Amino acid sequence: MPASGTNMPRINGNRLWADIVATARFGGTDNGGVTRLTLTEEDRHVRDWFIAECRSLGCTIEIDRIGNIFATYPGEDPSLQPIAVGSHLDTQPQGGRFDGILGVLAGVELIRTLKETATVLRHGLTVVNWTNEEGSRFSPAMMGSGVFAGASRLEAIEAVRDRDGTSVLSALEAIGYRGETLVGHLGFAAYVELHIEQGPLLEAAATEIGIVTGVQGVRWFDVSISGTEAHAGSTPMAQRDDALVAASEIVLAVRDIARRHPPGVGTVGFASVGPNSRNVVPGSVQLQIDMRHPSEAGLDQMQAALEQAIEASHSNIALRHIWSKQPVVFDPAIVDAVRANAAALGLSATEVVSGAGHDAAHIAGICPTAMIFVPSKDGLSHNEAEYSSPEECSRGADVLLQTVLQIDLK
């Protein structure tokens, strides 16, 4: 059981906020956001900062071959596997200051609080930075945690290239973060990830804490549409084979499929048109589709509906399923601990299923795992205007601390 609210140690919210402000300079944009793509110089700088802070607190540092960083503060019993917290330091292009990094910085603040209050855990406490959660430079997303959990092979991931032809392996070596530790060699007693919600539900309900019970499943598709390039002025409408018109029908189909399968969502987030000229009928279009649903059956139904829509279009369309992540249900005992500690702290809380993918979804396959959400202003994320208040960040870190303390007792 958690301690009573008055006796619970608390993190230093001002210090946590100062870290959020300080780290936003690594890749900071003119509009108050952050562009810190994985394995870039900006990523190297924030990684260096993280390691320096953790070493100053007495942590040991391990870096594995995919660049995941593990900063471990020792516990009383070295025979016990550590409790892990953390998230990721990379961002989307023109992303925000809170996505991912809040969970890492909260972990650093937990260690400071343990030191200041002379609190000794039985387990060690490991703060993790997972490589390439975002997937914005290298695909797929959640790359470091996926290799760590055995969902992807290291050799295959090392060979993945970005749009400029740089491989993951080369990028790791270029910034000096291809470590020596075998991937997956470390084990955890439990993993708890603090994160911003990245959606509007908590704010709309005026709720302070999200008790995350699981993560939606995801399927990614690439669509190639072939038509015939033709002159925009001299080709009659009835004789056109317009690839962009066919693509537009697919975009609308994705929207309608998601609406027919609530609470599923569907997004066409990328489109490339060829030859992309004002006075040429488009001859080719490439689309990238993201579909999500809390159940595998729901994803199956959405994919089947997409395939039917493509077949019914009678256009030259190729669909390729490139990546998927099954829905995840988090550990009930840790979910209960999050709920109990939010209540003990006097915070309003509600259960949510994460609409976004997270590293915790991979780690849930190898150890007891859960997540804690704090509200996102206007539901915005992957956006320079992304914002969670100092108080919201502090509350989430306090729930994280109390949850770790409760797990440590077991």
Automatic annotation (TrEMBL):
<dbReference type="Pfam" id="PF07687">
    <property type="entry name" value="M20_dimer"/>
</dbReference>
<comment type="similarity">
    <text>Belongs to the peptidase M20 family.</text>
</comment>
<feature type="binding site">
    <location>
        <position position="195"/>
    </location>
    <ligand>
        <name>Zn(2+) 1</name>
    </ligand>
</feature>
<dbReference type="InterPro" id="IPR036264">
    <property type="entry name" value="Bact_exopeptidase_dim_dom"/>
</dbReference>
<feature type="domain" description="Peptidase M20 dimerisation">
    <location>
        <begin position="214"/>
        <end position="312"/>
    </location>
</feature>
<feature type="binding site">
    <location>
        <position position="99"/>
    </location>
    <ligand>
        <name>Zn(2+) 1</name>
    </ligand>
</feature>
<feature type="binding site">
    <location>
        <position position="99"/>
    </location>
    <ligand>
        <name>Zn(2+) 2</name>
    </ligand>
</feature>
<dbReference type="InterPro" id="IPR002933">
    <property type="entry name" value="Peptidase_M20"/>
</dbReference>
<feature type="binding site">
    <location>
        <position position="134"/>
    </location>
    <ligand>
        <name>Zn(2+) 2</name>
    </ligand>
</feature>
<protein>
    <submittedName>
        <fullName>M20 family metallo-hydrolase</fullName>
    </submittedName>
</protein>
<keyword id="KW-0479">Metal-binding</keyword>
<keyword id="KW-0862">Zinc</keyword>
<feature type="binding site">
    <location>
        <position position="88"/>
    </location>
    <ligand>
        <name>Zn(2+) 1</name>
    </ligand>
</feature>
<feature type="binding site">
    <location>
        <position position="382"/>
    </location>
    <ligand>
        <name>Zn(2+) 2</name>
    </ligand>
</feature>
<keyword id="KW-0378">Hydrolase</keyword>
<dbReference type="GO" id="GO:0046872">
    <property type="term" value="F:metal ion binding"/>
</dbReference>
<dbReference type="InterPro" id="IPR010158">
    <property type="entry name" value="Amidase_Cbmase"/>
</dbReference>
<dbReference type="GO" id="GO:0016813">
    <property type="term" value="F:hydrolase activity, acting on carbon-nitrogen (but not peptide) bonds, in linear amidines"/>
</dbReference>
<dbReference type="Pfam" id="PF01546">
    <property type="entry name" value="Peptidase_M20"/>
</dbReference>
<dbReference type="InterPro" id="IPR011650">
    <property type="entry name" value="Peptidase_M20_dimer"/>
</dbReference>
